[in-house]
Amino acid sequence: LTQLAAEPEAARRRLGPGAFSFNVAGGRCEACAGEGSETIEMQFLADVVLVCPTCRGARFKPEVLEVRHRDKSVGDLLGLTVSDALAFFAREPMIVRALGPLLKLGLGYLTLDRESSTLSGGEAQRVKIVRHLGSALTDVTYVFDEPSTGLHPADVQRLNELLLRLRGSGNTVLVVEHHPQVIRVADHVIDIGPD
């Protein structure tokens, strides 16, 4: 957001960093509140989700989308996958530090604008691990339920490394897990039930 707000076109239009967030009024499409869609609630049927007729799913006002950072609008940037964003922002240490662990956990395919409510349980837990790795919290107990779900075996090793980093930062990490590779690195194993 700061990269877009620093562009001369943004300054000319008096657009600050908040204009490039669909969570804040100002630059987002107010017809859909930055959602890109409108939900019509049906009484006895499933809700119907329609593309916003004002922004056509772009989530931002046209004047915000016209501001470019290295030929990409805020919509283009948010549409990047984690892998593509890391390549695009390779010389931006803060962005690399924030997105790098997501790639290591096998989440490089997620787009930056992906809604958290659409993540699978395993994806959501891995995002939570990454978020907490960057915090200074210690003496916290974390509970994860099958965070290896959907991971390639090579990515399970990376997950283990991040769980061990959380523990190594002075935290307690409880993991409900059936994957043998994750169980192997546990300090203690509690086996409940038959099998």
Task: Provide an overview of this structure.
By secondary structure, this protein is of the alpha+beta class. Helix content is 36%, strand content 9%. The chain is built from nine helices and four strands; from the N terminus they run H-H-E-E-H-H-H-H-H-E-H-E-H. The protein has helices at residues 2-5, 8-12, 62-65, 74-78, 82-88, 93-104, 121-133, 153-168, 180-184, and strands spanning 37-40, 48-51, 141-145, 172-176. The strands form two sheets. A two-stranded antiparallel sheet has the order 1-2. The chain has a two-stranded parallel ribbon with strand order 3-4. Strand 3, helix 8 and strand 4 form a beta-alpha-beta unit. The chain is globular and about 60 Å long. The mean pLDDT is 90.
SSE topology sketch:
Elements (H helix, E strand, L loop, with lengths): L1 H4 L2 H5 L24 E4 L7 E4 L10 H4 L8 H5 L3 H7 L4 H12 L16 H13 L7 E5 L7 H16 L3 E5 L3 H5 L11
Parallel strand pairs: 3-4
Antiparallel strand pairs: 1-2
Q: How would you describe this structure in keywords?
A:
4 strands, 195 residues, 9% strand, two-stranded antiparallel sheet, alpha+beta, globular
The pLDDT mean sits at 90
> Any low-confidence stretches, pLDDT <50, length ≥5?
none
Instruction: Classify the helix fraction into a percent range.
Output: 25-40%
Query: What is the count of DSSP helices, taking H or I runs of 4+ residues?
Result: 9
Q: Taking strands numbered 1, 2, ... along the chain, how are they ordered across the largest sheet? A: 1-2
Oligomeric composition of the shown chains: single chain
Q: Structural class of the helices, strands and pairings?
A: alpha+beta
Overall 3D shape: globular
